[in-house]
Design brief:
The protein is of the alpha+beta class. The chain has two domains: 131 residues, Gcn5-related N-acetyltransferase (GNAT) (Aminopeptidase, 3-Layer(aba) Sandwich); 123 residues, 3-Layer(aba) Sandwich (Aminopeptidase), CATH 3.40.630. The chain is 23% helix and 35% strand. Strands 1, 2, 3, 4, 5, 6, 7, 8, 9, 10, 11 and 12 form a twelve-stranded mixed β-sheet that branches. The model has no long low-confidence stretch (mean pLDDT 94).
Length: 289
Amino acid sequence: MSFQLGWYEPADREAYLGLLHAAWEERTMSGDVFDWWFGGNPAGSLMSVARVGPQVAGVAAHSLARMVLEGEERLVSFSVHATTHESARGQGIFAELERKHEREAAERGVAVVLAFASAPTAPIFLGPLGWAEIGRLRVWVRPLLAQAPAPVEPGRFQSDRDAAATWPNHVVRDGEHLNWRYVDSPKGYRVVRDETGYAVVGRTRYRGIDTAVLADFVGGSKGLLRRAVSAAAGRALIALPAPEQRRLFASLGFVPAPYTLHFMGKPLAGKLALDASAWRFTLGDTDFF
């Protein structure tokens, strides 16, 4: 089976969404989320399709982001929202789409490409694509009682400074990024604030359970985390606390879950830190929460 790679065009939108729905079902992107994610990202996106004849048989994208790497702001890209039609699997489509995006990312000066890989894609990243495994990031979970979520005060992020400037390697959290990622999102994130920082709570279906998501948490106070819990709705609240935050999370009823994010990457125009402790992510840094 032969295929051809090409840039994503607006006419491919329904085909792209259809392939994502076939692969992810209830956790797929809606049309408005698709348009927001790829149309609004201030850092930009790379999007490609693979065609078998006239049909779109594979899709993939890289979301660009500004990150602080070893104390220096650099451009990075995250491999996201890729799948292949079941009739075309085993032909190397995913790997070729990724190679295309790596070349294009390198042309844009991207320092490293990163991914939170799924079980089917991880062997391809680590095998023919030559990526390196960095680590498995442990998700934590807290049961939630049936409750109406507490009200939150709406408002946009105003600062042009990085709210997470003290973190190790991390996505830059200035107002431009935070307003796109959370305030302007059709996913309905809820933001709570106090004098120490902010927290963002979302909602998803995770492992078949109606689940609240602590998408972002910058500040570190127990009061802020308690407010985030009160703003959540679902049967459970999941989070990705950093090692130094785990005692705080445990004090409010969070425990390690049997789920991890499989984190890996590849250097393009910079060094790739292979120690997981050199990185800081929250669930909102992924494309699936």
